[in-house]
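Hi there,

I know you've been waiting on this one. I reran it after we fixed the sequence typo, so this is the corrected version. Both the input and the resulting structure follow.
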Amino acid sequence: MDCIDTHAHLFVEAFHGEVDAVVARAKEAGLKKVLLPNIDEASIEELKQLVTRHPGFVHPMMGLHPTSVTKEWRKQLDRVYDELTGCAPFAGATRGGADGGGGGWRAAGYVAVGEVGIDLYWDDSLRGEQIAAFEQQLEWSRELDLPLSIHFRNATREVVESIRRVDENSLRGVFHSFGGDREELELLLSLKHFMVGVNGVVTFKNSGLADTLKYCPRDRVVVETDSPYLAPVPYRGKRNEPAYLPYVIRAIAETWGVDAATVAEITTRNAIALFGI
């Protein structure tokens, strides 16, 4: 069952000293690629080292996570922009958009601008700074013709408003770790070029996500683990890893009334179309 994990943080401390084994288990589970969203300036070098160590299997994104935004966000974003525009190119970087030709510059091998967004769950004291940093990175997504991986915890309305301010018709991406209700799903899907990322939350009995996904068009779904977080049942509460992605796929298959191979095929096709990998 070939599949793609569109969101995992394999470069963080939780995986130090174990990455090679984690990658090996992921391949054994049928994963063909794992996408790695950056967190902040401190994570960039470890992210790049991991991509160099496992070329062709892991693919990097570059962005500033909203919970890492400080009052010095402009300086933080200088480093992100330098990376996105190719100051330290990766092998295999290509010109052009998702199809490798025309419009835009896929610099440094980055497949998306991410992880970016707004998070008002833990602290809303830097709400203005988070919105400004997010909208700047939305502009870079347009400039570089790259999709977005968007974090939006307790901030659905705010991220949608920002996308519409910048220009929803020229942006595309995924709302990472979707776990909302049907009303929230419809709001996100009103942005025609965006998908929802589904992870282990769909396996949680009381989440309600499985029922919500019955109303989601199948061509608007990608799957993810968000490793090391949100491990699916039966590993809930433990460290998550890409090898557990088939549990997410099987839960979606049950909801859609199809076999797991069909879900894997659909979500892989969606990931390839969105990220150009």
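Quick highlight: Confidence is low (pLDDT under 50) at residues 88-107.

Best,
R. S.
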